[in-house]
């Protein structure tokens, strides 16, 4: 079995029991030798005492450092991972003709490595940016293709062709006995999940529909997405999938209708329910609404956090700003790096910019951002970005207009 460091394990979720036992023995040996670092680690979790340190104490510290409340829980989790991997290798998804649907291609190879053999569909229209309307699929695709072509630089026909692969596949589910949706807790995933649930409710297939819904992973320090996980963790999640039943399908329709509305009360009303059929969806919808302009600054939350980052750490490269956003500032990370770069453009290119950019001859992740005096004034609430920008944007079905030039 491959040995993973603690840092790797807390990113990918895979722990090796023998390695953790070895780490506990090394920690105990170092603490008994009065090594300052080892003693400091022990004192973080065990109060000072007269009794000599035991192996059980070191194991407890290792478990806490890995994100578990006890050595017993760490050991049980590792054993569960091992059992899950064996079950997938022995049986996997071969009991039914299966389609796995994911809002990206990030787990396709990992599923194969884990032992899954079903078909894979990437459905990745990023509803978290750009306009949304409750339209028939062909009209919705064309609306989205126009937007995606505009922000990506690709030809509209190419954007439409890419979208059509995913949308068309949803009309061809009858050959499957099971459809499994793999989604995490952020607004990128949950907005797409809402649409898929809405579609499945409107056109129910004969297949059994199941959901893998992930909000956190034991031992993973900062869970961002399923794509960061090891094959063993996908096998473990497989055992926790749940059937998609009527309340969840109905939630999908309510969420999609609220997301495509041209005003915020439908979403606010839905969020207030707590979305009990899938609480993580309500939290993602609440984060989505935070992209509407704040009353004092006129900024959506991502815009405001970006200005915060550049104020706090700048000047700095765009790629570094994105890293800060994902690791430290964003409460529910959901943006890809290209979406982040697109979102920066109005802040940079406005006649009165909130951000300045230099090193423009370099690739965009290496260009350097600095905040302007105007950007600082906006963050203080002394100016509103809506009075300055000339850019229109969308938050789902809600069109956000600049104040200048609006009749």
From TrEMBL:
InterPro entries found in the cross-reference section: DUF1835
Q: Which Pfam families match?
A: DUF1835 (PF08874)
For the DUF1835 domain, which residue ranges apply?
Answer: 99-204
**What is this protein's record name?**
DUF1835 domain-containing protein
Origin species? Billgrantia endophytica
């Amino acid at each position: 079995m491959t040995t993973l460091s603690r840092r790797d394990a807390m990113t990918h979720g895979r722990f090796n029991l023998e390695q953790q036992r070895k780490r506990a023995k090394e920690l105990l040996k170092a603490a008994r030798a009065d090594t300052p670092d080892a003693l400091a680690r022990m004192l973080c979790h065990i109060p000072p005492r007269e009794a000599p340190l035991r192996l059980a104490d070191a194991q407890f510290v290792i478990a806490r450092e890995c994100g578990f409340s006890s050595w017993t829980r760490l050991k049980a989790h590792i054993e569960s991972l091992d059992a899950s991997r064996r079950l997938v290798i022995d049986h996997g998804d071969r009991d039914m003709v299966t389609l796995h649907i994911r809002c990206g291609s990030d787990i396709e190879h990992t599923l194969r490595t884990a032992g899954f053999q079903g078909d894979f569909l990437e459905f990745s229209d990023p509803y978290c940016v750009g306009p949304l309307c409750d339209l028939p699929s062909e009209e919705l695709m064309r609306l989205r293709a126009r937007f995606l072509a505009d922000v990506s630089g690709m030809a509209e026909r190419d954007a439409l062709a890419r979208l059509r692969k995913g949308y068309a596949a949803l009309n061809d589910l009858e050959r499957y006995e099971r459809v499994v949706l793999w989604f995490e807790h952020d607004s990128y995933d949950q907005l797409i999940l809402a649409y898929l649930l809405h579609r499945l409710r409107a056109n129910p297939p004969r297949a059994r529909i199941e959901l893998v819904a992930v909000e956190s992973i034991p031992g993973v320090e900062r869970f961002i997405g399923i794509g960061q996980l090891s094959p063993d963790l996908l096998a473990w999640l497989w055992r926790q999938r749940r059937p998609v039943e009527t309340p969840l399908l109905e939630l999908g329709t309510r969420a999609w209708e609220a997301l495509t509305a041209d005003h915020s009360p439908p979403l606010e009303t839905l969020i207030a329910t707590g979305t009990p059929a899938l609480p993580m969806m309500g939290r993602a919808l609440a984060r989505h609404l935070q992209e509407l302009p704040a009353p004092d600054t006129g900024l959506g939350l991502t815009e405001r956090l970006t200005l915060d980052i550049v104020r706090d750490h700048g000047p700095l490269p765009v790629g570094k700003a994105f890293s800060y956003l994902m690791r430290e500032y964003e409460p529910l990370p959901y943006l890809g790096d290209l979406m982040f770069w697109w979102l920066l453009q109005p802040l940079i290119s406005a006649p009165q910019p909130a951000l300045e950019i230099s090193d423009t001859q370099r690739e965009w992740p290496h260009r350097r951002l600095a905040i302007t005096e105007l950007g600082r004034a906006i963050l203080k609430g002394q100016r509103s970005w809506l009075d300055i920008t000339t850019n229109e944007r969308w938050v789902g079905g809600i069109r956000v207009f600049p104040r200048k030039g609006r009749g």
